[in-house]
């Protein structure tokens, strides 16, 4: 069946975006049906009606990492393996699903009196990161909602649930084992991470993993046909993982610094309180707290001068 894009072009015609190994691997109806059969526990074999409707212009850092398709009356959105779980995925998928519904529905029918039936949505995230994570977890849009007094329920009239599956070794092996493509993908990514853990540079680790898969008939002939493309995509993907990790660490460091600044401020205030408790005047206690914080005499004078409009010493 034809895989259509939002503009109606054949899938693959628009290469302005950067694909990922996951989206390239499962840009195939048979592999996608095999994958969804494993994830859903159903049996979607050959002949099952499927339409891939991935949006090519919904990108993160110029990378398309969502796969969406309609099968068996459901609108299914899959996200490629995540190196870390993004708690904002439910909101992201809400916006994504709205775009997909806009694409696949007859806009004129929205204004007709007769009820227009639409596919049921299903949202699945496949986690393949290195941090510990449960085999399965549900993320809900309502977890992000602010508390609103007066509403009978926290989520009001809208909610969205995302099923997060850990596909690392030792987790959901029954599901992974039902899809040869997913099993091969997990093994392939695992070999790359194994190589980098041994100290190999990324390019060598990827090349070694491609060779290993060829020798053990993993993801063949996919890796043979797309070898150079896969190496380029994975190099970009792993660099993206590193970039995200750096952003998160910078965010944590900023948070720690804010905490240190706040702690110092609270400590100075506490010094004032303690000084007053020792019988010192408020001014004396303030001066002592400034000295205890490491201020020089001139700095103390400047601070008190700004605060009181006169020299305090």
Topology readout:
Blueprint: H1 21-25, H2 29-40, E1 50-52, E2 66-71, E3 74-82, H3 89-104, E4 120-127, E5 136-140, E6 161-166, H4 173-176, H5 180-197, H6 202-215, H7 222-225, H8 227-277, H9 282-292, H10 297-308
Helix pairs in contact: 5-6, 6-8, 8-9
> Oligomeric form of this entry?
single chain
Shape: flat
Structural class: alpha/beta
Instruction: Quote the average pLDDT.
Output: 77
Biggest β-sheet, characterized?
Answer: 6 strands, mixed
Question: Cα-atom Rg, whole angstroms?
Answer: 28 Å
Strand order of the largest sheet: 1-2-3-4-6-5
β-strand percent reads 5-15%
Poorly predicted spans: 1-17, 59-64, 271-281
Distance between the termini: 85 Å
Q: How helix-rich are the residues, as a percent range?
A: 40-55%
* H and E order: HHEEEHEEEHHHHHHH
Can you count the helices?
10
Q: What is the strand tally?
A: 6
Q: Please, could you describe this protein's structure?
A:
By secondary structure, this protein is of the alpha/beta class. It is 47% helix and 12% strand. The protein contains ten helices and six strands, in the order H-H-E-E-E-H-E-E-E-H-H-H-H-H-H-H. It has helices at 21-25, 29-40, 89-104, 173-176, 180-197, 202-215, 222-225, 227-277, 282-292, 297-308; strands spanning 50-52, 66-71, 74-82, 120-127, 136-140, 161-166. The protein has a six-stranded mixed β-sheet, with helices on one face. Strand 3 (74-82), helix 3 (89-104) and strand 4 (120-127) form a beta-alpha-beta unit. Helix 5 (180-197) crosses helix 6 (202-215) and helix 6 packs across helix 8. The longest helix has 51 residues, at 227-277. It is flat, with a radius of gyration of 28 Å.
């Amino acid at each position: 069946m034809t895989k259509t894009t939002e503009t109606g072009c054949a899938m693959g015609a628009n290469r302005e975006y950067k694909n990922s190994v996951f989206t390239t691997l499962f840009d195939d109806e048979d592999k996608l049906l095999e994958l969804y059969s494993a994830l859903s526990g159903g049996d979607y074999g050959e002949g099952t009606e499927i339409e891939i409707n991935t949006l090519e212009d919904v990108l993160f850092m110029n990378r398309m990492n969502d796969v969406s398709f309609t099968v068996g009356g459901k609108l299914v959105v899959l996200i490629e393996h995540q190196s870390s779980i993004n708690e904002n995925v439910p909101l992201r998928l809400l916006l994504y699903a709205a775009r997909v519904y806009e694409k696949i529905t007859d806009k004129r029918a929205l204004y007709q009196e007769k009820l227009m039936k639409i596919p049921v949505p299903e949202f699945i995230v496949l986690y393949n990161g290195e941090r510990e994570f449960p085999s399965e977890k549900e993320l809900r849009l309502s977890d992000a909602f602010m508390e609103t007094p007066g509403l009978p329920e926290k989520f009001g009239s809208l909610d969205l649930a995302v099923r997060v599956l850990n596909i690392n070794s030792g987790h959901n092996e029954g599901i992974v084992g039902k899809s040869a493509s997913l099993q091969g993908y997990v093994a392939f990514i695992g070999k790359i991470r194994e190589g980098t853990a041994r100290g190999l540079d990324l390019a060598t680790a990827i090349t070694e993993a491609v060779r290993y898969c060829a020798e053990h008939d993993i993801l063949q002939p996919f890796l043979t046909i797309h070898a150079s493309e896969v190496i380029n995509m994975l190099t970009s993907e792993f660099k993206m993982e590193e970039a995200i990790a750096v952003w998160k660490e910078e965010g944590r460091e900023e948070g720690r610094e804010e905490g240190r600044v706040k702690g110092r401020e609270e400590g100075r205030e506490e010094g004032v309180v303690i000084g007053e408790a020792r019988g010192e005047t408020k001014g004396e206690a303030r001066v002592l707290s400034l000295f205890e914080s490491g201020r020089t005499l001139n700095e103390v004078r400047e601070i008190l001068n700004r605060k009181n409009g006169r020299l305090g010493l």
